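Notes to self after the call with IL:
- keep both proteins in one doc
- input above output, always
- annotate only the second one for now

Protein 1:
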Amino acid sequence: MLIRIPSELRWSDVTPRHVYANRRRFLASLAGAAVTPALLNAYAKQKLAPLKASSFSTSEPKTPYEAATTYNNFYEFGTDKSDPSRNAHTLKTSPWTISIEGAVSKPQKIDMDAIMKLAPLEERIYRLRCVEAWSMVIPWIGFPLSELIKRVEPTSNAKYIAFESLYDARQMPHAQGIPWPYREGLRMDEAMHPLTLLTVGMYGETLPNQNGAPIRIVVPWKYGFKSIKSINKIRFVDKEPQCSWKMLNAREYGFYSNVNPEVDHPRWTQSKERRIGELFRRPTTMFNGYGEHVASLYTGLDLKKNY
């Protein structure tokens, strides 16, 4: 039996958790191979290599893994919070390539093996605040998005970054609710900020499909829909890019979407939130508690008008 150490593994060698957790589907995929408990255990223990801790991490208690992976927004797999965990097994995450286009000196297509070599992985325990007024605390795994941006050398015309998620009707038969593919965007300084995480895992393991496998971003001072999942295209542009929820309803979803207890959603208050696993609601904090790091990005900007 070939035993490989983590440094020899490619991204495509790592078995996603959803595969080995569903034993029947996993066994069927091996189609006649000799399967033993030892082999199953070997697959089940493939996790990401030891990680560097981050000074950006919160010390708040983590949301239980089960809650974080079964209560999700991912409309490509259904609109109910429990739909993604039931339906996202149809997403094929390997091979996976991201196309990088637009105002860069080095446009390219980059696969997950190359992405994983760009920078050391870190574990960052970030708060995630969703626009529906619920929140979680999740140990994400990744590295600053800026590490990828620097390597493609944006030109002076790159003022914003536009992101697109994969959309494939065959893999996503439950997709509904918005025009596809899902689109999001950031201002260049937001994308370059060290808090903006290019994310490949959570809880010490690769991302589950329902949480945005194989690669997403996490922007912790913004509402959760800004942290786009399953990215397969990044384009550097000179004008504010289109974003799916703003395209659908600009009155309710602005481009910036910074967590702001003073700007209510038209249908509910943003001054309070319910942490998943807790009974009572708590006050929402400006920029989701990351104001000391990011408030300077918005000096002079009216955050009520530019919601």
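Protein 2 (the one to annotate):
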Amino acid sequence: MYGMNGDPGLRILFVHGETAIGGGETDLLRLLAHLAAHGDATAVIAPPGGGLAERLAAAGVPQFGIPVPGWRKTRDLLKRSRFFREAGRAFDAFSPRLVVANDVWYAPHARRLAERAGVPWAAHVRGELKGPGRVRQYDLDRAGAVLTMADSNVAGLRAGGVAKERIRLIPAGIDPRVPEPDRVESARKDLPPGRSPIVGIVANVLAVKGYEILEEAIRLLARTFPALLCVVVGSADSEFGRRYRSRIGKSDLAHHFLFRGFLEDPLPHVALFDVMLLPSLSEGFGIVLLEGMSLRKPVVASATGGIPGVVEDGRTGFLVPPGDASALAEKTSLLLSDPAMRERMGEEGYRRCVSRFGREDRLSEVREAYLRLCGR
């Protein structure tokens, strides 16, 4: 296969261990589409079933359905042996020239597959890196290239032993677009009548996304805004998600929450938000914030991980300490009470989104890092 301008295309095997669609999976799918458009061949090792498998099949990307076990737990030792047997056969069938771990947790798997055949390997750091120790635990110091979206991770990578020239800081990006009016109206019909204002979050219902903080903040906000509605766009299929949704449904906050589940395209619902929230306890980048900013929505988010590189505090929204429900409620209330501020911050957010976070430029940088690693 040949890429654009007649150059030999890349041949890349990705390793990923999740089945549900979240930020990392969405970004992987966008990257796969970009690589395909440039004539590159790709395949993915990932557990069978789930939303990711469906999306890969729809995109025509070959998937080897192999469960990817954890790396550090002794109880997964036999599963790891089975993984490498099956993954080795997948490797031989596809014959990649580059192996890429789609997140930190799969870097040791990618490393061993690549070293088995003497090909280079790379790793993406999609979450917030918790100290330099994790760099060595997951073999990132041995990668040919480590790609991170957040500048907050660079110091940890350096301290963990990753050479400066092997680190690629490439922020996430999106192509700003406006959802079709009829889809926005359809989303509006999902909402209970007479509810205003509307805040929302786009994130799978996991503890790390700060949902317990969100619950407390909504309780505080409801005192000032009795018709407040919080729209939750994200899968609640995890054990935490099921417990959380059940608890909210039985509480006095039930009429303040609307759970929409995972949506292939969340933008029609985001278009209805007055304020977008992301109270994560840990976050690699927060690409969903760009989706809100692309629709001129002011945001209130935790000052953790890569989020401060996305949100300009006091200009495109507000940053609050992670875990601080009172601060989350206070800043959200400030925006809900001031339409002019919302409009001003929404416009600033849109300009920042367009000027700094164009998707195609960012994906081209990722491909360029792969090319360099392969000696192109």
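Annotation: The chain is about 40% helix and 15% strand. The longest helix spans residues 77-94.
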